[in-house]
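Q: Convert this sequence to structure tokens.
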Amino acid sequence: MIDICDFAVGLSRQLYGLTIATERPGHRMMETWHPLGVVGVITAFNFPVAVWSWNTALALVCGNAVVWKPSEKSPLTALACQAVLDRALARFGDAPDNLSQVLIGDRVVGEAIVDHPKVALVSATGSTRMGREVGPRLARRFARSILELGGNNGGIVGPTADVDMALRAIAFGAMGTAGQRCTSMRRLFVHESLYDALVPRLKAAYQSVSIGSPLETDALVGPLVDKAAYDNMQKALEAARAEGATVTGGERITDAGPETAYYVRPALVEMPRQTGPVLEETFAPILYVMKYDDFDQALADHNAVAAGLSSSIFTRDMQEAERFLSADGSDCGIANVNIGTSGAEIGGAFGGEKETGGGRESGSDAWKGYMRRATNTINYSRDLPLAQGVSFDIG
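A:
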């Protein structure tokens, strides 16, 4: 939140338009950017503060008002954020009333925001199922959308990879926040020459990782959000076993916190091929690992899933790295080299979920999504140019 607010304060003086060359003598053209009006923000439980901050900071410096519907699973952080913002607005004293509002509720509240004719843009973060419902409803009234949806994110470990570097990045990216990031690593393709050097060490990390309450410990893996998430994880693991997988971990840990909480040991799943549950995102700490021997095939398999937000390759081969970043490389909005899939800096525009064509929040030129562009032409000559052969008498 602090990072994006710092970014937005500087951005407020950089909402630049272009000066455009014109073929008409005595004329000047330029573009001007104007606020949209009201921006609706719908956020998911897993990042209940950051995603609201990305959207709200940009929306406000662009001159918009914000209506926020947080996940019904995380209302308290939303109320706390609004209280912080209200305190700041009161301190400065010049903001209009109701500049930012929080609406607590279930999907009915979200539908009201999506369908309201005065909400010019809806930025919605959540599952692809949610996106498929929100997108068409906004399109029916020609409203704008920024959709940041699921990410069945993949990584490739090439034959020249630094195994120690890859091990740390993969372990954190797949297990951190109990696999409940939209950028969590969920699929891993390992070259056959490094498979036996990397995968046993990954298994050891999975067996020894710290699990506990993030409020009381510095454990890497906290709880799943609820019982439904745990049940979905177990269904995915059973489906993987039916496809011939070998599963390490995945069991519930009952002594890591209250008995009503769902702590699990992250699961490393060795798959013979990319089939079944590997093709679908399960919002839990499951990493499917597959062996490959041909880079083109690994890249094709990496791109073969529907949902994809972030991706990475571990390699010291310049040709592999550049190919991964090229137009026919990773098809995700975030593509990294020798860095894991998890996390992002606010300086770059976050997002690009491939199934939607890619919404963009946070940095770079993402601010343009929160404004409308007007092209202006100014005639400073004494003449009004007309089309050839056209004339009339104006008296």
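The chain has two domains: 2-149+353-379, 153-337.
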